[in-house]
Design brief:
This protein is α+β, with helices and mostly antiparallel strands and 502 residues long. It has helices at residues 12-18, 61-64, 69-80, 95-104, 115-127, 129-145, 150-160, 211-253, 260-268, 293-307, 331-341, 361-379, 390-393, 396-402, 405-414, 416-419, 424-436, 441-448, 452-464, 472-486, and strands at residues 10-11, 25-28, 35-36, 38-42, 55-59, 84-88, 108-111, 164-170, 175-178, 187-192, 198-206, 276-284, 314-316, 319-326, 351-355, 359-360, 387-389. A hairpin with a 2-residue loop joins strand 13 (314-316) and strand 14 (319-326).
């Protein structure tokens, strides 16, 4: 009937791996994906003429004795489309027999004991494939529970699922464990991280796809999800626990009077302060998703140690602090490396960073950290991966700390004459650049990436709208208003053209 469920059928491979054939000796392993629908105990080779396709032929001793008895049984199995041939121990088997089985693609097994008993066990498994698959799932679950690594868990699945290739694939397509041949397979199960979001997928490729086989594989892959998530989370959670301890130590160290025990504990961790130190403060970029603090810390710390294994990172305030030490360390060197690598950090939070100026000793680090916090207030509005230096920002870092809702409202009122014009945004950018450059139209033009005459023309239009930016009593207020409206967009690198106009 249309839409009805297909009957469950076991394959030879399933019977070998978790059924009665697990006790058999496999001589020819060709076509193990063949389905087994029936079981027949053969006492006389003439019985094979009435066998239906997909039958497991279990040979009784009389049918397997003689010089060519087994070869004849194999040919009969091939002609009737049988699933496999099972011979009793003591049957005449030589290299030519095995070669014939492989050439005909007929799986060949030898079993100890009474063939009739084996036939009964096979018939029971074929009659109730659901029970056989439940046994496989239970065995897989038990074996998986004994593994603690990603490779170990995926290895168990590949071992327990014959005819199936399984791999653990990261979101970026990297194969973390298992067989590369599984990539692009028919079954794909997401593996969640501790925050519930998928960080990888279990992918399986079945060499002989079938509805029942795919269902069995899906069930087993789902059993592995929780152990895989726990295995992946262990190092991250360990980092988070260590981070919580280091947070307390750093707070004590940065206090007004750290005691000798605190300084000794810091030295034991390898923290150095006697050289020049540049503080780095990481913070979530503006618009970052809200995450559980422990989960966020675990992800950030793990991502940082992948990108900057030679530099510590410690939770601090609303972010994470690092300090880079060296006798000839410069902010520019740190800035360059951070801008290159920070966007590559893989974690759930998009990050930005602020840098302080170099300082010596704990007092110098304390000052550098305060400067890094101010610089980070600009960086977080510049988007994920942005890195700002306190020294390069200069007075603009003070303007950044002033930005809030009430100030923005006041700025919109003060510069309403510009904002209501069609090119208002361009005029505000130009005005901010001129004020940043101390009134120099040449420097402002270079910053905006336009011609000096273009800047002069815009200034004429600004004056015509009643904005007296040349008035010393109004200049500071107008400058603050521009920055409040533009925020991080007010900081334009030399040669850049934020408005795209000439």
């Amino acid at each position: 009937m249309s839409g009805s469920r297909l009957p469950e059928v076991l394959t030879v491979a399933e019977l070998v791996h978790h059924g009665p054939l697990a006790k058999a000796i496999m001589l020819a392993d060709a076509n193990l994906d063949a389905q087994v629908r029936y079981v027949v105990l053969v006492s006389d080779l003439d019985q094979t003429r009435s066998c239906r396709p997909n039958t497991a032929l279990v040979l009784h001793s009389p049918a397997a004795q003689g010089g060519w008895a087994l070869e004849s049984a194999l040919r009969a199995a091939w002609e009737r489309g049988a699933a496999c041939v099972i011979a009793p121990a003591g049957s005449t088997v030589n290299r030519s027999t095995i070669a014939l089985a492989e050439r005909l693609h007929v799986p060949l097994f030898v079993v100890e004991g009474d063939p009739a008993q084996h036939a009964l066990e096979l018939a029971a498994a074929v009659a109730s494939p659901g029970a056989a698959r439940a046994q496989l799932a239970a065995r897989c679950a038990s074996s998986i529970s004994e593994q603690s690594s990603l490779r170990g868990i995926v290895g168990v699945i590949n071992t327990e699922l014959p005819g199936t290739s399984v791999a653990l694939v990261a979101e970026d397509g990297q194969v973390l464990a298992g067989k590369v041949a599984a990539v692009g397979g028919q079954v794909r199960i997401p593996v969640p991280a501790v925050d519930g979001k998928p960080w990888a997928h279990l992918v399986a490729r079945l060499s002989a796809p079938s509805p029942s086989g795919a269902e069995t594989v899906t069930t087993i892959l789902r059993l592995a999800r929780a152990p895989l998530s726990a295995s992946a989370a262990k190092p991250k959670l360990a980092l988070a626990r260590r981070g919580a301890q280091e947070r307390l130590l750093l707070e004590a160290l940065l206090s007004d009077r750290p005691d000798a025990d605190t300084e000794q504990a810091a030295r034991e961790l390898g923290w150095r302060f006697d050289e020049m130190n540049v503080a780095v403060l990481l913070r979530p970029a503006a618009g970052a998703p809200s995450l559980d603090p422990d989960i966020a810390a675990a992800g950030v710390l793990a991502g940082w140690h992948e990108a900057f294994a030679d530099h510590q990172l410690v939770p601090h305030g609303e972010g994470w602090v690092s300090w880079w030490s060296g006798p000839e360390l410069t902010t520019g060197r740190v800035l360059s490396r951070l801008r290159r690598r920070l966007p590559r950090i893989r974690c759930a939070l998009p990050l930005s960073a602020g840098l302080g100026e170099p300082g010596r000793g704990i007092d110098g680090l304390r000052r550098s950290l305060h400067e890094a916090a101010l610089a980070s207030s600009v960086a977080i509005r510049s988007g994920p991966g942005a890195v700002e230096s306190f020294g390069a920002l200069g007075p603009r870092v003070v303007l950044a700390s002033l930005q809030h809702e009430e100030l923005t409202t006041a700025a919109e009122t003060a510069l309403a004459a510009l904002l209501t014009s069609a090119d208002g945004d361009v005029l505000v950018r130009t005005l901010c650049a001129v004020l940043d450059c101390g009134g120099s139209t040449t420097q402002a033009a270079a910053r905006l990436g336009v011609h000096r005459n273009t800047v002069s023309g815009r200034l004429d239009r600004i004056r015509a709208r009643g904005i007296a930016f040349d008035d010393p009593d109004r200049r500071l207020a107008i400058h603050v208003a521009c920055f409040a409206l533009l925020g991080d967009r007010a900081t334009v690198p030399p040669g850049g053209s934020p408005d795209g106009t000439a």
